[in-house]
Structures are given as C-alpha cells and as structure tokens.
Amino acid sequence: MVTAEPITIRPVKRTIDAVGTLNGFEEIVVSAKAEGRILRILHDVSDRVSPGELLVEMDPTDLQLAVEQAKSNVQVELSKLGLSEPADIYFDLARVPTVILAREKRELAKLKMERIQNLAAREATTHEAVDNAESEFRMATAEFENQMLMAKSGLAMIEARQAALAIARQQLADTSIRTPTPQRASPDNMEAAPYVVTKRSIAEGSFVRVGDELCRLVIDGTLKLRVAVPERHSTEILVGQPVDVFTAATTTPCKGVVTVIHPSVDTGTRTFQVEIQVANDSPALRPGSFAKAVIEVREDPEARTVPLSAMVRYAGVIKLFLIENGRATEVQFTPGIQTSEWVEIAGPVLPRDCQVVTSGQFNLATGTLVTIRETGPKGDAAATAEAGKPHHEKTSAPQHQ
C-alpha cells in the first residue's frame, strides 16, 4: 500500500542571492584648499549637515594680509598710468599722461621740422639745421610709440595684479570650509541635511597644508549595495528589477532596485558587479554594513512541484515514482526550489495530471504493482491551499564584500 498525490502547479519567483557591502549614495573627502592653522571645528562625527553649511574655519590672518598686499600692488600699477580704478577693454591709451606728453613733443618736433624745411626751400637755413630737425622728429615719434607700448604693458600689469588679488581673495575665502552642494541628488529620502559626518581627521590648533584631509561626509538617505553575480546570470539581471536587502541588524527586508550593471566580467572570479540602490528608511542600515541581496529576476506561474516526501535520495541519485496504469515508474529528476513541504521538479517535464508516490516508495521498483491508500480530505485541502501561494527560487552568488 502506498499513498499518492498529483503534481501541483504553483507560481514560483525566481531569485538570485548575492552579498556585498552597503555604501553611501555619495562619499566625499573634504580637503583643505588653503594652508593654515585650524581655528574652529563646527561639526563632529555623526552630525548631520546641509549643503553650504560651515564645517571648519581656518585662521585667516595671513591671507587677509596677502589680500591687502595684492590691493596695494594694483594701486601702484594704476598710479603709473594716472588711473584711480582699473580700466575697461575700451580704454583709450591716448588718455595716459605719458602718452599725451610724448604726442605733444612729437607734434612740436613736426612743426619745427616743417618750418626749417620751408626755410631750406628758400635757402634761408643750413642743411645741418634741416638734418637736426628731421632727427628730432624721428626721435619724438619713436618716444611716442615707446610710451604707447609702455601704456599697453602697464594695462597688462594691472590685469596681472588684479588676477593676483582675485587669487588672494579666493584663498581667504577657502579658509572657511563648507559642505559641497550635490549636483546629482539622491533619488529618495532627500532631507534638509543630506550629509552625515563619518570621520574627522583634524583638531583645533593643528596645521594643515593644501590637500590634507579634514573630514569625510556621506549621503545616507539612499545607499548603494554593490554585489558580485556569477557570469552565468548575465542575461537574467536587468536594470529596474526589485531587490530585497537583508542585514544582520534588520529582521525584515529593505526594498531596493537594480540601477547599474557593469559591462565587464572579472576574469579572476568570473563575476560581474551589480549596483543596487536601497532606500534608507531604517536607521539600522549604515554605510559599510554587510548585506545580502535577493534579486527577483522573474516569476514562473506554472512550476511543477511534488510533496517533499515524494523525493527519494539514494547513492547520489534523486528520484521519485510515478503511478502509471497501476504500476510504479522510477523517474530521476533535477530538484529546483525546495521548502519544508514540497520540492520543484526542474527537469524533466512531467505530465500535469500524473501522480507521484508519497509514502511506501522505498520498496518499489519500475513495474511494481501498487495499491493506493486513500488520504483524508483534510490533507488534500491543506495541499490545495499551499499551492496557491507564490514561492521563491534562490540562486546563490559567491560572497564578495
């Protein structure tokens, strides 16, 4: 006597398991842009800060003096050209006093030369006087051109001094270190203070140089989970697929979505990277935490399953027995998803209306006559209710942090 049940058709969600490390949506290293001594630290580790908020103040004394010196250098160059303020691009160089003086001397030398040439035409002067007048005119012309070049050079020097002043002012402004303004905002959970301070590398009174690390900030309203998935699943993972994320600190899964699939496969591990964005609604989710991702790749609405008791393992062979025309038929099969109550038949494909032996099969062989013992209606009702629930098939990926 044996018991038997029909194959059950039930929906099964196909999933892929992978593990990785949670990272902030953006992780920023704040470094010094100016050299100096730390005057004040306004925020410490775990503080939440908004974009543009003051983090650190450096002693500005030296750079304030540098700004004043740069201003004086600009005024020196302006005074050389007789200006009180920097000129615009349409400034007329002929208005510069030295150029005006040179131009007047040239005009005077020209008039003198013309008078002497007129006298020479009437033979009322000597050739030496003509030569001297012409020479004086050429010298005055060369002086005028030289003064024009000097004026252009003076304007260029003013621009250089102005640039030096702008650099000094920027360095002075850089003594106040503020949080950056993110240009690529986190898609979810953006609050007034999206940054959290995760590390402080300085103390008040310490001296820092350009490029030294001051602190680290993380946007943790949305986290990124990077996992390694075996290359055999490269055609199954798609952008936009839903993901359940588990951590050691959470009892319920957090919802995520696949956002980035790396185009190349690591030749050492034969895996490819998948990036998952996770909305950080729970304070238990922290950057740096170890997490497990269950990626839902598709749903199979008609998976064939049998009771777990129908599966027989013997000498490395997994099999079950079908009842055909009152006789047992041994079938070796590949199990798919397995629960505490049933197991999926991944292959071969069995008829939808066949029955499988659920007890007494250890004394059976192919061709053995069988007698089916009736089961109670209660067991049948429970099996029917269970068949209507969707289940998950999980495919594990190598663990890479």
Automatic annotation (TrEMBL):
Question: Which part of the chain is the CusB-like beta-barrel domain?
Answer: 225-294
Task: Kindly give the Pfam families that the UniProt entry links to this protein.
Answer: Beta-barrel_RND_2 (PF25954)
Q: Which GO molecular function annotation, any one, does this entry have?
A: efflux transmembrane transporter activity
Spell out the GO cellular component terms annotated for this protein, sorted alphabetically and separated by semicolons. efflux pump complex
Region of interest (Disordered), residue spans: 375-401
Top-level taxonomic group = Bacteria
Q: Which Gene3D superfamilies match?
A: 2.40.30.170, 2.40.420.20, 2.40.50.100, Helix hairpin bin
Protein name per the record: RND family efflux transporter, MFP subunit
Q: Which organism is it from?
A: Planctomicrobium piriforme
